[in-house]
Amino acid sequence: MKLLAIILLSLNAYSNPHPNESLTPKDKLAGKKVDVISKIGISTPNKVGLPVIRVNLVKEHGLFVLKKSVIEYSATKNFYQKSSRLDSLGSFKASLTSSSNPKEKYYGSIGTGYNFASHAQGLSFRFPLIKGKSVLTIFGENSDSGKLEQVFSQTIDSNILKEFIQNHGTNVSILKQSKANPPILLNLYAEGYGDNESDRKRFYRGASSVIAGLKSFPSFDQFEIRAVFYPSNLELGSPKNLRTKIVRDSFLGLYYPYWSFEMGRWYNVVYPTDYTKLMDGFAQLPYDYAMVLIKSRGYWGMGNYNFFTAIPDANRSFTYLLHHEFGHFFGLQEEYSSGGTELLFGKNTVEPWSQNLTFQGSARSFTKWASLLKKGTPIPTTGRAFQLGVFRGGYAGVSKKSHIPAKNCTMGSGRAFCEVCAKAISRKIGIDQGK
Ligand SMILES: [Zn+2]
User: Fold this and answer.
1) 183 membership: H or E segment, kind and range
2) Could you tell me where the DSSP H helices lie in 227-312?
3) Which among 420, 316, 328 has a CA at the least distance from the CA of 366?
4) pLDDT, tens digit (0-9, with 9 covering 90-100), for 40-55
5) Ligand 1 mean position to 406 CA, how many Å?
6) For residue 50, which of 106, 99, 94 has the smallest C-alpha distance?
7) CA of 421 to the centre of ligand 1 (A)
8) CB 169 within 8 Å of CB 79
C-alpha cells in the first residue's frame, strides 16, 4: 500500500531537484573532511547591520494578512543599493513608499511559483528603514494570466514597530573572505543540529563542503561566507506526514511540506513552518544571501529567487543539489523535462521571467539568449551538433511550449551550468552589488 502511494505520488511529482535521483551527478564531498578553511574570525552578533523594516505576511482564507513587522539590523550596503531599484524578475513584487515623500521608495522581489504562497502559507520582505509612515504594496502573479496584480496594501508606521533582538549564544564564524568591496555576505545557517560537539563538528564539516563545492560556482570570489550555528531541539529526520500543521521546534522551523499533498513529491523539498521563526533566524546578523545547511542524508532541496536556499549536508549528490538550488535562488528554472515543479508560472504566461526558459521557441520571436547562440544555430534546435541552442523541453515537463538553452545543464541533471545559466548568475550577483 505504501509502495503504491509512493508510485502514485511520483507520477504527480512536484519538486525542485531532478525527479530521478539516480540520474544526478554524485560526488564524495558530502560528509567528508574537506581540507579547506580555518575560521578567520569570530564575532558575536549585535546591531552590526543597517536597519530594515521586515514584514511577515500569512495567507488566511485566500488573502494576505500582515502578521508581524519589525525593525532589524540585518541589511548590508549592497542590500540598500539593490532595494532602490525595481527588480525585473520575480513572481511577488513588493514596494515600500514613504507617505510624506513618495521619492523615498524601496523595492523587493521574490520568485516562487504562484502556488508557493499558499503551500508555504506566507511571504516575507525586507526594506531599508523608512522613518514614520509608509505604504507597503505587494503584487503577485495571477495563476491564469501570469500577469502581476495587486494582492496587498497597508500603511506601516516605523514609530510603533518593535526592534528585533538577536538570540543569545549564536555562534558566527567567517569562513571565507571576499575579493569584493563591499562583499556579498553569504550566511550558512545550521538547521537540525543538536547542542553537542559531534553535531557542531558535522555542521562545520558541511560548511567546508559548501565552500569546496562552490569553488566552481559563477562569481565565487565575490562571496564572504559565514557559518551561523544555533542548536535545534529537533532534527529534520525522514519525511513524515504529521497530520496537523505544527511549527517545527528547530532553529529555523523548516520541514517537508506534508500539509500540501497536492504538490506531489512534497518529501523532496523543505518549507518554512513559521515565517517569523525563519526570518528571526536569518536576522542573527547581516546577510545578502541566506543558505541553510540541514543535518540530513536525504535527497531534497529548496531554492527560491531572492529568498533562501536549503540543502542536506550529507547527500551523495551534494554539489549537484548545492548548485541546482542556488541556481534557483538567482532566478533559474528547471531544465529537466519531467516530474513537475512547484515553480509554476501562470497558465497563460506569454514569456516566463526566468532567464533560462522561453516559450518563444521559434526563430522569429526568440530573443532571450539569442546573442549567445552561434551563427547558423537552428531554432528550435535539435540534435547534438550545437551545445547551446533553443531545445524543446525543461520546466519539469509542465508546458509543451517550454524551451531551454542546453541539454546537459545543472538546472537539469548536468554537472556544470550551461553558458546561459552561468552568465545569468553572474549578472544577478552584479545587480545585487549595485552594478
Ligand atoms: Zn542552464
Assistant:
1) none
2) 275-282
3) 420
4) 666 555 668 999 999 9
5) 6
6) 106
7) 4
8) no
- Spatial distance between the Cα atoms of 300 and 309, rounded to a whole number of angstroms: 11
Indicate the CATH number of 2-39+166-329 among 3.20.20.70, 3.40.390.10, 3.40.50.300, 2.30.110.10: 3.40.390.10
Q: For residue 324, give Cα distances in angstroms to 91, 153, 344.
A: 19, 34, 17
Over residues 361-388, the pLDDT tens digits come to: 988 899 999 999 999 999 999 988 899 9
The whole-model pTM stands at 0.93
**Residue ranges covered by each domain of the chain:** 2-39+166-329, 50-163
Q: What values do phi and psi take at 152, rounded to 5?
A: -165, 145
pLDDT of residue 45: 58
Residue 98 CA to ligand 1 center (angstroms) comes to: 39
C-alpha cell at 264: 506531489
* Gap between the Cα atoms of 269 and 414, Å rounded: 20
**What are the φ/ψ torsions at residue 311 (nearest 5 degrees)?**
-140, 155
CA of 234 from ligand 1 middle (Å) equals 36
Q: Which of 236, 400, 378 is nearest to 313 (CA)?
A: 236
- Per-residue pLDDT band for 145 (boundaries 50, 70, 90) equals very high
Q: Cα–Cα distance between 340 and 207 in angstroms, integer?
A: 30
Over residues 14-30, the pLDDT tens digits come to 347 888 888 888 887 76
For residue 377, give every residue at least 6 positions away whose Cβ sits within 8 Å of its Cβ, in sequence order, or none: 386, 388, 389, 390
CATH 3.40.190.290 assigned to 50-163? no
Asked if residues 158 and 132 have their Cβ atoms less than 8 Å apart, the reply is: yes
Residues contacting residue 183 through CB under 8 Å, at least 6 positions apart: 177, 222, 223, 224
**Cα 181 to middle of ligand 1, angstroms:** 29
Mean pLDDT for the chain overall: 90
Q: Give the Å distance between the CA of 414 and the centre of ligand 1.
A: 9
What gap in Å lies between CA 271 and CA 311, rounded to an integer?
A: 12
Confidence at residue 12, expressed as pLDDT on a 0 to 100 scale: 35
DSSP tally for the chain: helices H, then strands E: 7, 19
String of DSSP letters for 343-394: -PPPTT-SS-SSTT-BS--STTT--TTGGGSPTT--SSB-SSS-SSS-EE--
